[in-house]
Design a protein that fits this description.
Multidrug efflux transporter AcrB transmembrane fold, Gyrase A, domain 2, eight-stranded antiparallel beta sheet, 4 domains, about 725 residues, Alpha-Beta Plaits
């Protein structure tokens, strides 16, 4: 073996070992996203409207600090709390599924006030009649709804607290209470307040609600106060926690929530693993059967490609401290596309080697020329997708950015494995004298179709399909979008046996949710998805459990998106798509030195996205964030296919100078047809595996990919390539 090849093997072995080190064990190196492991994602908005301009400057930062202290005390591992923009906070809590408790803990402002109760019965009656005396306010106690008139001005606030702890009142059957301790200044003031108001009641008010209002029997110099209120142990612990770490500087609202139960998370993992294994097995078998030895070498590269992707994710925190190694459902989409591009690179190389062998080259020359001629197309197609991934990361939201990160690593991995690894293996077996021939199956022969001549027919077909699809899309209005973009809430419940939907509809109507929609999954009729326009989860869950007492109802997931957050997500998703396409337009224009190539390719991309949107609308599927991820995957796949043909047109223009542009396009498309069918077919095997075995969560995503990939092949051959001619001046055709 040549020393050069030996050194390459050593380099490859070192890289593979490094990737294996950072990839395994997976559960320690790579975090699973909340959509896979279960947990909560919250987007909180800090309401600074009532704060002074000076207070607004530090409000969000202070809120992040308070929330982090509360979550740390709550004991959530690997929680993520990040400020987003000026007044938004993103909170991710892996493994937390007690939704109500977590929301109450995080969202409670914890503004503690001590207010003197005005015991004048005449004033109270006037207040109950609607006339509240100046300087007073009407409140009701938490435990027995007793009306009280309180002084508006607080005698003391929680700013003076130093500690809050849970104790048990032996005189009240060991009922849990919360004991408060003040600092020296607070203790002195509390002593003065109690001394001056003996015989009166002192209301303890938390976030505007009266927790208790005990009578002051004597001055309390100890600096301790007790909050009672028929708490459960958990409620008392949480209350003491939020009081102990401090109040939020301003109220907060939940703009977006995604809660995934551990069962659904595990189901997603199981389904994803099964789909991935089936898809990869189909790809590996096909490559080995069709390309024989060359296919086996490609399979080795594909297997190592997955290892490099996982290793790259594991290295992320080390290389880029601000980016975490987290695998999500959109990340799996990025891996699927990168696997498709790795297959494409190997198919391109093998088809080029076949052409060189057919032209009479010896084995060494055929392999060398095959890699050289395939390199330009592989590089151009991967760079365009890298540009799109970079812009998606810049302009996208969380799920889209996760897709972009995984896709970027996958593209770099596929470039290395397809170009460097496989070539090194070929060079090694040639050097050892083991490679005398390289047989491959050749089922798909080169066609002789006039694509340019029939272009108007296909333009018409595409126009009809898009018009029908877009008509269906716009007729659906807001119903065309999932809650990610239109706002609202969905709850998925799991029943022991398939429930009666009519009974659930009656329950929804009784709960004031007559506008809710119900979906029962065909592959799992025990699961029911309910979409509502408002957050009524607590009421709805209680009603369902009351009316189905023997069904052991489990909450699988809850997703809530407010109208403002939905609008924001829609804008960001649209910007991500537009900017990625603009990036592709600029690169293709520069690389091919002709604007007509770029504009034709971009029109084909819009064609594929519009066709996919239309088919989703026609089949009753909604567009959500995973759908947008599918659109971006389709864009990457489609432009990859288009670039390969453009590269062949450029090559043929140098070889056949006498041919017209129309003849060059027809020749190039026909020459690339076998590669197009093979790559698309093999990639569709992966997508079909995700569709059939990936579970309900990935069903919509996989369906969109199937439609888009088929449309991508069609648009590359029948739209993008002929459009190059349409956008070229007649004197240059």
């Amino acid at each position: 073996m040549e020393k050069r090849v030996l050194y390459k093997f050593i380099l490859i072995a070192a890289l593979v070992s490094l990737c294996a080190y950072f990839a395994f064990p997976l559960n320690k190196r790579i975090n699973l996203g909340l959509d896979l492991q279960g947990g909560m994602h919250l987007l909180l908005k800090v309401d600074t409207s009532k704060l002074s301009d000076e207070a607004k400057l530090d409000a969000s930062d202070r809120a992040v600090e308070v929330i982090r202290n509360r979550i740390d005390a709550f004991g959530v591992r690997e929680a993520s709390i990040q400020k987003q923009g000026e007044d938004e906070i993103v909170v991710q809590l892996p493994g937390v599924t007690d939704r109500e408790r977590a929301i109450d803990l995080i969202g409670k402002t914890a503004l503690l006030e001590f207010k003197i109760v005005d015991a004048d019965p005449q004033k109270l009656q006037a207040a109950l009649a609607g006339t509240i005396p100046e300087g007073l306010e009407l409140k009701y106690t938490k435990d027995n709804n007793e009306p009280l008139l309180l002084q508006q001005a607080a005698a003391l606030t929680g700013d003076a607290l130093t500690n809050a702890s849970v104790r048990f009142d032996s005189s009240q059957f060991n009922e849990p209470t919360v004991t408060l301790q003040f600092n020296s200044a607070g203790a002195k003031k509390f002593s003065e307040i109690t001394a001056a108001n003996i015989g009166k009641r002192l209301a303890i008010v938390l976030d505007g609600k009266v927790q208790s209002a005990p009578s002051i029997r004597e001055a309390i110099p100890s600096g301790e106060a007790v909050i009672t209120g028929r708490f459960s142990i958990e409620e008392a612990q949480d209350l003491s926690l939020v009081l102990r770490v401090g109040a939020l500087p301003a109220p907060m609202t939940i703009e977006e929530e995604r809660t995934v139960g551990p069962t659904l998370g595990q189901d997603s993992i199981n389904a994803g693993v099964k789909a991935s294994l089936v898809g990869c097995a189909l790809v590996f078998i096909f490559m080995a059967v069709y390309y024989l030895l060359a296919g086996v070498i490609a399979d080795i590269a594909l297997g190592l490609n997955l290892l490099v992707i996982l290793g790259g994710l594991g290295m992320l925190p080390l290389l880029f401290p601000g980016i975490s190694a987290t695998l999500t459902l959109p990340g799996i989409a990025g891996m699927a596309l990168s696997l498709g591009m790795a297959v494409d690179a190997n198919v391109l190389i093998n088809e080029r080697i076949r052409e060189e062998l057919r032209a009479g080259r010896n084995m060494r020359a055929a392999i060398s020329n095959g890699y050289s001629k395939a390199f330009t197309a592989i590089l151009d197609s991967n760079i365009t997708t890298l540009i799109a991934a970079f812009l998606l990361f810049q302009f996208g939201t969380g799920p889209i950015r996760g897709f972009a990160v995984t896709l970027t690593i996958g593209i770099l991995a596929s470039l290395f494995t397809a170009i460097v690894m496989t070539r090194t293996i070929f060079e090694a077996i040639i050097g050892l004298g083991w490679l005398k021939s390289l047989p491959m199956l050749h089922i798909i022969k080169e066609p002789k179709f006039d694509y340019v001549g029939k272009r108007k027919i296909f333009y018409f077909v595409s126009a009809v399909v898009i018009i029908i699809g877009m008509t269906a899309f716009f007729m659906k209005g807001g119903k065309a979008y999932g809650i990610d973009f239109s706002g609202g809430q969905i709850q998925e419940y799991s029943f022991k046996t398939p429930p009666q939907l009519d009974k659930i509809r009656t329950i929804l109507k009784d709960a004031g949710l007559s506008d809710a929609t119900i979906q029962q999954f065909r592959d799992n009729p025990r699961a029911v998805l309910i979409r509502t326009s408002a957050d009524k989860n607590t009421v709805l869950t209680a009603k369902l459990k009351e009316n189905f007492p023997d069904q052991d109802i489990q909450i699988m997931r809850i997703e809530h998106v407010g109208p403002i957050a939905g609008k924001h997500l829609k804008t960001k998703a649209l910007l991500a798509i537009i900017w990625s396409i603009i990036g592709i337009l600029i690169y293709v224009s520069i690389r091919f030195k002709h604007f007509n190539f770029a504009i034709a390719g971009v029109i084909a991309l819009f064609h594929d996205v519009l066709v996919t949107m239309g088919v989703l609308a026609l089949t009753g599927r909604q567009i959500d964030l995973l759908s947008v991820t599918a659109f971006l995957t389709i864009v990457g796949f489609s432009i990859n296919d288009t670039i390969v043909i453009y590269d062949r047109v450029r090559e043929n223009s140098r070889l056949y100078r006498k041919l017209s542009l129309a003849e060059l396009i027809n020749l190039s498309v026909n020459q690339c047809m076998s590669r197009t069918i093979l790559t698309s077919g093999v990639t569709l095997l992966v997508v079909m595996a995700i569709f059939f075995y990936g579970g309900e969560v990935l069903s919509n995503f996989a369906f969109a990919l199937m439609v888009g990939f088929i449309s991508g092949v069609y648009s590359t051959v029948y739209i993008a390539s002929p459009l190059v001619l349409a956008w070229t001046p007649k004197n240059k055709r």
